[in-house]
Specification:
Uridine Diphospho-n-acetylenolpyruvylglucosamine Reductase, domain 2; globular; binds flavin-adenine dinucleotide; Uridine Diphospho-n-acetylenolpyruvylglucosamine Reductase, domain 1; 17 strands; Uridine Diphospho-n-acetylenolpyruvylglucosamine Reductase, domain 3
Length: 320
């Protein structure tokens, strides 16, 4: 980065980009509570300042990473020599009409599920308890019980790499199991049109409560973690089962490196038991993958994304 950080932040404020911070600790924006400082950190509050931010990053050739709640991301202990643009409550409007929801990318998913249920809109209750934003959920095509948010998406509004707003159909989002076009193309999700179906609010609430109770029972929710670290690859699933079962059968529950431990509750969760670092995550993930490969002949792949200090982002195993 050629410009001094303070000067850079002032330049951003001067072009109308608000909520700019310098050297923001990324551990505060990661559900794993891991990550060094980001040179620049901006909380997104509207589309036009974001467009200016995208143009600025392009002009000065500064890496720009978009995040939501950081519940599926590992940041480096070194942080980021670039800009984090965070979607959160400053960009979280929701409009409802019948079974249609238009919601901003920063909406907190548990809140959206609750709102939809209260208005009698069924179809997204499978996402109850997923601790991310709508943008992050769409990017990951996340969900539970073999369902995915993409199933209810009708349209997405996104910013392309030139900062132009584009409207995309569900087909153009190329949703498949835990995958979307947003993982392959440089697009920033701004807003989504979801279409559910109408049902009694109490029926929807009951389904959501059942899902929440199951999650509470199955997942280690008390220690910082990033949800499922490894993806449920269909080929590996067929041969050996889901990653949690594979890791458990390899006897790795409770395995600890530094502050990171394979959860004794669910082996696909690596919990930060205190002072965990990105180095610990890398070492633990590498060790699990090696042991599993020797046992079953498959390399587990990561669902969780890693952001390098230089601003590259990809599934964690690609950096091992
Ligand atoms: C306890 C726990 C339980 C979980 N359970 C589940 C589960 O049941 N099912 C499931 O699918 N996931 C689960 N997750 C994982 C995670 O919560 C989801 O993937 C979530 O949707 C990520 O949202 P986020 O806002 O935190 O995204 P982040 O982690 O901030 O980002 C994830 C990816 O999305 C990109 N991104 C974020 N916002 C945007 C945007 N607006 N435009 C473009 N790209 C964007 C980021 O660059 C990054 O690559 C769980 C996580 C935890 C910690």
């Amino acid at each position: 980065m050629k410009l001094k950080l303070k000067k850079l932040a002032d330049k951003l404020r001067a072009i109308g980009v608000n909520n700019v911070k310098v050297k923001e600790p990324l551990s505060m924006h990661s559900s794993w509570k891991i990550g060094g400082p980001s040179d620049i950190f901006v909380e997104v509050e509207d589309v036009s300042p974001l467009q200016r931010l995208v143009a600025f990053a392009k002009e000065y050739d500064i890496p720009l990473i978009v995040i939501g709640k950081g519940s599926n991301i590992l940041f480096s202990d070194e942080g980021l020599r670039g800009i984090i643009a965070k979607f959160g409550k400053a960009f979280a409007n929701v409009k409802i009409d019948g079974a249609n929801i238009i919601a901003d990318a920063g909406v907190w998913v548990p809140l959206l599920v609750k709102l939809a249920a209260s208005r009698g809109i069924a179809g997204i209750e499978h996402a109850a308890g997923i601790p991310g934003t709508l943008g992050g959920l769409i990017y990951m095509n996340g969900g539970s019980l073999q369902q995915s948010i993409g199933d209810t998406i009708k349209r997405i509004w996104a910013l392309d790499e030139n900062g132009k707003v584009v409207e995309m159909t569900r087909k153009e989002c190329e949703f498949s199991y835990r995958s979307s076009v947003f993982q392959r193309k440089n697009l920033i999700i701004l807003r989504a049109h979801l279409e559910g179906s109408l049902d009694e609010p109490n029926n929807i609430r009951r389904r959501a409560i059942d899902i929440l109770a199951e999650r509470k029972h199955k997942f280690p929710l008390k220690q910082p973690n990033c949800g499922s670290v490894f993806t449920n690859n269909p080929e590996i699933y067929k041969a050996a089962g889901p990653p949690g079962k594979i890791i458990e059968e390899a006897g790795l529950k409770g395995l600890r490196i530094g502050g990171l431990m394979v959860s004794p509750i669910h082996a696909n969760f690596l919990v930060n038991v205190g002072g965990g670092t990105s180095k610990d995550v890398f070492e633990l993930v590498a060790k699990i993958r090696d042991i599993v490969y020797k046992r079953i002949g498959y390399w587990l792949e990561c669902e969780v994304r890693y952001v390098t200090p230089e601003g590259d982002i990809a599934p964690l195993h690609k950096f091992i």
